[in-house]
TrEMBL record:
Family indicated by similarity: Belongs to the glycosyl hydrolase 65 family.
Domain of life: Bacteria
Domain Glycoside hydrolase family 65 central catalytic: from-to ranges: 314-672
Metal-binding in keyword set: no
One GO MF term: alpha,alpha-trehalose phosphorylase activity
EC number from the UniProt entry: 2.4.1.64
Domain Glycoside hydrolase family 65 N-terminal: 7-256
Protein name: Alpha,alpha-trehalose phosphorylase
InterPro entries from the UniProt entry: 6-hairpin_glycosidase_sf, 6hp_glycosidase-like_sf, Gal_mutarotase_sf_dom, GH65_N, Glyco_hydro_65_C, Glyco_hydro_65_M, Glyco_hydro_65_N, Malt_Pase/Glycosyl_Hdrlase
Keyword match Transferase: yes
Broad class of enzyme this protein falls into: transferase
UniProtKB keywords: Glycosyltransferase, Transferase
SUPFAM superfamilies associated with the record: Galactose mutarotase-like, Six-hairpin glycosidases
Length: 751
């Protein structure tokens, strides 16, 4: 049930969208869902293959450059194109835009990890063939992108010609009318080598500035005797087979890059090809299925009552798995490995929206994401100095390798809350795992350096600690004093830095760390004072936390009378126009109430929700899920369900109109959050796990698993009954609503 995404559209708009929806990846390598044979001459495809973190640097051009504006930005690159396979049937080139299409369907198999196209085609000369294209990006051999094609003539066909092409002369996609897609610097690679070696085609590309290398080593074969030729140019290698059908053709493409493999990228790719030599496509599919069986065993979310939403949540979880980095060099970009939107940069999206999915189901992946952030800590220290801070670290708003890549500082660098977001994710990881070694080796340093940054950024006034001139999550309100979200998250950051210091002091592990970090008790006391005296703006008349000092003093934007064509507002109004109004791009204060709900009473949370909902456009894909989660908490059942609907199928239905540029990964994580933290009411606190479940009336049942401190817990919600079963691990006490319940392995507890 709901394990496949099936498409049959051939119009320009939907083909571009489907390139993203049917993309394949494994966290290292990603390939868009393009047609092997290409399109018609008028079609502008976004043909892409990407390696996580593989990038070049480009200069940022300013009309008026100010001090500490970043000089360069990093850009994820479209690398060597190995997708192309052209097929000729008695001289007629196969294309879905010529001849007659008797039938056509393409499917992404979420449980098996591959995509396929099934086609019945009649050529302009009346020759009929059935074709099946299958492709996968291996979860087991991360460097491998494999294609398998079966061609079966249905009438008298004399010759099938198959041309496999590997092209190193590639560019990135640009759109000068959309700031979310790069408008320049399309060509960032040159072909440094192209040859045949040991029976493989080998192309190596090198980046212009970073001098990184990427290679694609390709092997091809057919299962029939026939003629063979190859053609090599400076940047393209073609292999040509002529056979009589039926025939099966396979193409194994192995990608290696110098970030991971150093100078021996080509040799390493050849070694991998030799290891794959005896593996059939069926065996690759079997490996893929076994990997995904293990993934879905604990990550699947089962919804009984809505097939459309079941399809949506599984699609989202699968695409998160395909895009999340699983090595120390990589993270998860806002578009994953499905497209070029936002140039492959890592944002705060990772920590707040995507990491919780892995933390509660695959904590090893979550740990890798945190370790990757830790690897950027020295760059964050350097950035803090550039920004005039004598102490601490300031993590970049947009980055790949640690340098700030955001040229628009009001909605970029000014979003200091990214420091607190990262600290929050470290704290959540510790609460879920109780990994003391991680705390000592990594977490304490991150919390110390982020706490120092808040002290250096804020100041005491009238007995309160205030933070001026920052931007919160809402990018329609920039450079403000005392943004509620920033301040409350900074408070959490500061007070947890104190807790960690005292925890390590009690365990006699602080002396070495204090020397290493030049840390003393007086500094820790200052963090505690700042945290306890943090100013959280509040409006007595409205009974809500103000988004910032000045927000409620502005005129309200008239959303009801704004033309639908003018959304998203950022594409139709100057930023200053937006900054002058009460209008929110996304959840800001409401997000703060979700992440740190104990900082406000329920009446304040409810009144804040009602107020900010009326002035939020949800132009950001990060918004719907937060409003769904908090609507669940407040008992707004219709709103919770409505917002979840918009979240769960945002890309499948192209709700934001830009799915062609890549999938909205944070929203995909948000869909899981809306189920587990929303409908099931999960919260992770110092006291442990608590659940406040409320099954949507539209559903018959909901089922999922959680990992927590070495345990696996199954949760089933059916009508008014919730069943908890400890599947693995030692006994555990959790909270169900306000009641403590004790879980023992294998015993179902019904509430």
């Amino acid at each position: 049930m709901a394990w496949a995404i099936t498409k049959s559209e051939l119009d320009h708009k939907n083909l571009l969208i489907n390139e993203s929806l049917l993309s394949l990846g494994n966290g290292y390598l990603g390939v868009r869902g393009n047609f092997e044979e290409g399109y018609d001459s008028d079609f502008q495809s976004i043909r892409g293959t990407y390696i996580n973190a593989f990038h070049d640097e480009t200069e940022i051009t300013y009309g008026e450059k100010q001090y500490a504006f970043p000089d360069k930005q990093q850009k994820l690159l479209n690398v060597i194109d190995a997708q192309t396979v052209q097929i000729y049937v008695d001289g007629d080139r196969f294309s879905l835009f010529s001849g007659e299409i008797v039938s056509f369907e393409r499917t992404l198999h979420l449980d098996k990890g591959y995509s396929e196209r099934k086609i019945h085609w009649k050529s302009p000369n009346g020759k009929e063939v059935q074709m099946e294209f299958r492709r996968l990006v291996s979860f087991v051999t991360r460097e491998l992108f494999a294609i398998d094609i079966k061609i079966e003539p249905l009438n008298d066909v004399n010759e099938l010609k198959i041309i496999s092409r590997v092209d190193g002369d590639v560019s990135n996609f640009t759109d000068e009318n959309d700031p979310r897609v790069a408008s320049g610097h399309a060509k960032r690679l040159f072909v440094s080598e192209a040859k045949m070696t040991e029976g493989f085609t080998a192309i190596k590309d090198t980046t212009f500035e970073t001098q990184l290398d990427v290679t694609c080593i390709t092997s091809t074969c057919v299962d029939k005797e026939g003629s063979y030729n190859n053609y090599i140019s400076d940047s393209v290698i073609e292999e040509e087979y002529k056979v009589k059908g039926p025939v099966r053709f396979s193409k194994y493409n192995v990608y290696t890059d110098s970030l991971r493999y150093g100078e021996n990228v080509l040799e390493e790719g050849i070694k991998i090809q030799h290891r794959l030599a005896n593996l059939s496509f069926e065996e690759l599919m079997s490996e893929q299925k076994e990997y995904l069986d293990n993934f879905w065993k604990l990550t699947d979310v089962k919804i009984d009552g809505d097939k459309s939403l079941q399809e949506g949540i599984r699609f989202n979880l699968y695409q998160l798995l395909q895009s999340v980095g699983k090595d120390p060099i990589s993270n998860i970009a806002s578009k994953g490995l499905s497209g070029e939107g936002y140039e492959g940069h890592y944002f705060w999206d990772t920590e707040i929206y995507m990491l919780p999915v892995f933390l509660m189901t695959n904590p090893a992946i979550a740990k890798n994401l945190l370790l990757h952030r830790y690897s950027l800590l020295n760059s964050a220290r350097e950035r803090a100095r550039e920004m005039g801070h004598e102490n601490g670290a300031l993590f970049p708003w947009r980055t790949i390798t640690g340098g700030e890549s955001s040229a628009f500082f009001p909605a970029g660098t000014a979003q200091y809350h990214i420091n607190a977001d990262i600290a929050y994710s470290y704290i959540q990881y510790y609460l879920v795992t109780r990994d003391e070694e991680f705390l000592k080796d990594y977490m304490v340093e991150v919390l110390v350096e982020t706490a120092r940054l808040w002290i250096d950024t804020g100041h005491f006034k009238d007995g309160q600690f205030r933070i001026d001139d920052v931007t919160g999550p809402d990018e329609y309100t920039c450079i403000v004093n005392n943004n509620y979200y920033t301040n409350v998250m900074a408070k959490h950051n500061l007070l947890w830095a104190v807790k960690v210091f005292r925890h390590l002091k009690e365990t006699n592990k602080i002396e070495e760390l204090s020397n290493q970090l030049n840390l003393n008790a007086d500094e820790v006391e200052l963090w505690e004072e700042a945290g306890e005296k943090m100013f959280l703006p509040y409006d007595e008349n409205l009974g809500i936390h103000a988004q910032d000092d000045s927000f409620l003093k502005k005129a309200r934007w008239n959303l009801e009378n704004t033309n639908k064509e003018n959304f998203p507002l950022l594409l139709h109004y100057h930023p200053l126009t937006l900054y002058r109004y009460q209008v929110c791009k996304q959840a800001d204060t409401v997000l703060g109430h979700f992440l740190l709900e104990d900082e406000a009473d329920i009446d304040t949370i409810r009144q804040s929700y009602d107020y900010y909902e009326a002035i939020t456009t949800h132009d950001s894909s990060l918004s719907y899920c937060v409003f769904s989660i908090m609507a669940s908490k407040l008992g707004y059942e219709k709103k919770a369900y409505s917002y979840f609907n918009k979240t769960a199928r945002l890309d499948l239905e192209n709700r934001h109109g830009n799915t062609k540029d890549g999938l909205h990964m944070a929203n995909m994580g948000g869909a899981w959050l809306a189920i587990v933290y929303g409908f099931a009411g999960l919260r992770v606190k110092e006291s442990g796990l608590s659940m406040h479940p409320r099954l949507p009336k539209q559903w018959n049942a909901l089922e999922f698993h959680l990992r927590f401190r070495g345990r696996v817990i199954q949760i089933k919600m059916e009508n008014d009954i919730v069943c908890y079963t400890l599947v693995e691990g030692n006994n555990l006490t959790i909270q169900h609503r306000e009641e403590e319940i004790h879980l023992e392995q294998g015993i179902e507890i019904r509430k």
